[in-house]
Design brief:
128 residues, mainly alpha
Length: 128
Amino acid sequence: MNVSQLEQCCYMKIAVLRGRTVTECHSELVEALGDHALLYRTVARWIKSFQCGREASTDLQCSGHPVSVRTNVSHAVIAQRIEEDRRWSLKRLERHTGIDQATVHQILRNLYSIFYFLITIEILRIKE
């Protein structure tokens, strides 16, 4: 039987409430799950966080680089700006749309890759 990390964390939360130690909790997980049990160090970290008052059994959301979402709206905004004036730079598009530069670049590649592909095919036909 495969038991997920979330299910093991839920078990550890209950084990903390029952007063189990890290060693006891880990040995019970290994006894029940064998090789599928979490590592001792992982169990120790979760047990410590539950003992310090952590409520959630799931991982907390990490801070850091924002998640960029490539939606149809983003594509439409970029396409509209480019149709108005083809001389937009990536940096200028980023400032005016609020979409990060890497995402703008990816959208432009997606929007215009078919166009460039068709031009390349046409050039090769002309050369033949």
